[in-house]
Specification:
This protein is an alpha+beta fold. Helix content is 16%, strand content 31%. The protein binds succinic acid and manganese (II) ion.
């Protein structure tokens, strides 16, 4: 399951009952008082996901974290629920990494959802230098996840992330390029009653 130094793919990490409960949480969060929205990024393009940041808001215009959603509606980022934080910290520990997650980006991908190749590099320089991992949890339809190297032009591996999978990249893998090229429709476990995919990425802003 260590696919590269510091990168771990934990297939079927979450059993079906846990997936179901998490799907319900994701739905409630995205449709809550501070709802998910489709960010417009720096160049003016819309992202191809519906996003909600918990614990700290990632501003798609400045690529910086902030307390309130100044690129959208000025509302404060909802807190990161304790049980979600613990799940992320446990996943990191299971691969021998330390994480004290304090923020999560929850994304919903519909059948046309995708995310271009990018690095996660907007957390504090100390957090990144320490190699504190990003922990990702996937629910619903399978994603074709792209995992590259430290340079944009490095070769990219395509890897299906299925419902219940966790993926961790920290240490020497922390700044590897990654993205989602497509969602494979109608691949979610039927008991989730979900069209599309939720992905949660947990991070620790500072050390
Ligand atoms: C991300 O890189 O922020 C999301 C990755 C994913 O959806 O698997
Ligand atoms: Mn990312």
């Amino acid at each position: 399951m260590e696919i590269a130094p510091g990168a771990f793919h934990l297939q079927h990490y979450l059993e079906p009952g846990r997936q179901r409960a998490l799907v319900d949480r994701c739905r409630a969060l995205l449709d809550g008082d501070v709802p998910g929205y489709v960010p417009v990024v720096r160049g003016g393009g819309k992202m191809h996901v519906r996003m909600l940041c918990l614990g700290r808001h990632w501003n798609g215009k400045t690529y910086a974290y902030e307390d309130v959603r100044s690129d959208f509606d000025g509302l404060p980022a909802p807190p990161l629920p304790d049980d979600l934080k613990s799940l992320a910290d446990r996943i990191a520990a299971s691969v021998g990494m330390t994480l004290n997650a304090d923020l999560c980006i929850l994304n919903y991908y519909d059948a046309d959802g995708r995310m271009g190749l990018h690095q996660d590099k907007d957390e504090s320089p100390r957090s990144i230098a320490a190699g504190l991992p990003v922990v990702s949890v996937s629910l619903g339809d399978t994603a074709r996840f792209l995992f590259g190297g430290l340079r944009r032009r490095d070769p990219v591996e395509a890897r299906p992330l299925e419902s219940g999978d966790a993926f961790v990249f920290g240490g020497p893998a922390r700044l590897r390029y990654h993205g989602v090229s497509r969602i494979v429709p109608a691949t979610a476990p039927p008991e989730l009653d979900l069209a599309g995919r939720f992905n949660l990425t947990f991070r620790q802003y500072d050390v």
